[in-house]
Design goal:
The protein is of the alpha+beta class. It has a single domain, classed as 2-Layer Sandwich (Alpha-Beta Plaits). It is built from 3 helices and 4 strands; from the N terminus they run E-H-E-E-H-H-E. Pfam families: EthD (PF07110). This is EthD family reductase.
């Protein structure tokens, strides 16, 4: 059963997010430390929260794994990736781990 990890970066007053750093240096770290365990990865940049509504989220990173064991191995390799978050945002990211059903 495939599982996913979504990392959600919500927008709130006083927060910042450096997309340039995120899409270059941080992505490189993800690939270096976690990449061998990831089947698919994509990132969605928040543009709007609905018609005429600003986005409530900077970005959502979605990582898909073959199974729970692959996710666990990836998370075991993640400390350098997690430590890098402070280099591109002051947001406390939210995480959602789930079963891919479609």
């Amino acid at each position: 059963m495939a599982v996913s990890l979504q990392v959600i970066y919500p927008i709130s007053e006083g927060t910042t997010f450096d997309y340039s750093y995120y899409t270059t240096k941080h992505f490189d770290l993800v690939g270096e430390h976690m990449g061998e365990h990831i089947e698919t990865m994509f990132v969605t940049k928040g543009l709007a929260g609905g018609p005429d509504t600003p986005p409530g989220i900077y970005a959502v990173a979605t990582l898909v794994f073959e199974n729970q064991d692959a996710l666990n191995a990836s998370m075991a390799a993640a400390p350098p990736v997690l430590a890098d978050i402070a280099n591109f945002t002051n947001v406390q990211p939210q995480m959602l781990i789930g079963e891919v059903i479609s």
